[in-house]
From TrEMBL:
Lineage: Bacteria, Pseudomonadati, Pseudomonadota, Betaproteobacteria, Burkholderiales
Identification of the protein by name: Nuclear transport factor 2 family protein
Signal peptide per UniProt: none
Domain SnoaL-like: residue ranges: 7-134
Superkingdom of the organism of origin: Bacteria
Gene3D superfamilies: 3.10.450.50
Species assigned in the record: Noviherbaspirillum sedimenti
Any Pfam family the entry gives: SnoaL_4
Amino acid sequence: MNIADKLYAIEQIRLLKARYFRFVDTKQWDSLRAIFTDDATVFFAEAFDAPRPIDEGMTFIKDVLQTPVSIHSGFMPEIEIVDANHAKAIWAMTDQIYWLGSEGNPFGISQMTGAGHYHETYRRENDVWKIETLKLTRLRRLTIPLPSAN
């Protein structure tokens, strides 16, 4: 690949990740699923003991994030184009999740703030970049419990 093609691929991957965050926070589940390859895997270290197939990961994401307001940010990407159809990246991330009460809240908390990294691989299919593997690792997670009912 020449430098222009590599830079174009990097920009396409940046846009892909921006869509990931927007689709998660706006709960556009079908659009979120569409940016992953059919054989994609996801690994959320706090929830899973090993990578899971994307459809199992989507069920987890929907179950956890359907009710709360979430704000995800990704920045400072380290994107490496491996070849014309494969790339990998590490993204620094933060997230803030706010539950309004106990309904739909599997954790019994009112807020969670976290920071860490997404480790991802990408594959280009039919000239479109998609997420092939996603692994989220956290450096810090702060939770605030639900207020006690008095």
